[in-house]
Design goal:
mainly alpha, 6 helices
């Protein structure tokens, strides 16, 4: 990974096992039965955007589509609702990944906010076209919560890559 101007250390390569485990953990967090509250953050969308930004060659549009279908089946939603939403998220996250990594984490959170808002707008539009009821204006809280969770997700998901590769004190890096 290219070092940003303010970054202090190089990151180790991400473990594919950790990356997939975090995506499945986010899927399980989304499956926690909290009711149909519109304001709950979409942890899977957050993880898909994060890994699409940090590992665009491994996590892309196809993975986002597959996880979207899994969410559609779980929530008994119109088939393709979450799939289209997550695919759009993955596409735009990959499109901005080079630019986004140069900003500090707080600025990144502000720049991914429109992505999360677009995702929820797509889900709302498909739900309304399918004859569903409007969930209320609490729906606007969810993208803001996801954006507020971005720094925490960055801290947690990059933590395994920040450890030193070798504890030898004689190495320059």
């Amino acid at each position: 990974m290219i070092m940003r101007p303010g970054q202090q250390q190089l990151l180790l390569p991400v473990s594919p096992l950790f990356m997939w485990a975090s995506l499945f953990a986010a899927l399980l967090l989304n499956m926690i039965p909290v009711g149909r509250a519109a304001w709950t953050p979409d942890f899977l969308a957050l993880a898909i955007v994060f890994w699409s930004v940090h590992q665009p060659m491994r996590i892309g549009i196809g993975v986002a589509f597959a996880f979207g279908l899994a969410m559609d089946v779980h929530q008994s939603a119109m088939l393709g609702q979450h799939a289209l939403s997550y695919t759009t998220l993955g596409y735009f996250a990959i499109a901005i990944h080079r630019r986004l990594l140069w900003y500090p984490v707080v600025s990144q959170a502000l720049q991914v906010l429109p992505l999360f808002a677009l995702s929820h707008l797509i889900e709302l539009a498909i739900r309304m076209i399918g004859g569903g009821a409007f969930p209320g204006w609490n729906l606007l809280i969810s993208p803001a919560l996801e954006s507020l969770l971005w720094p925490l997700a960055s801290l947690l998901l990059l933590a395994p890559q920040r450890r030193t590769p070798d504890p030898d004190a004689n190495r320059p890096l």
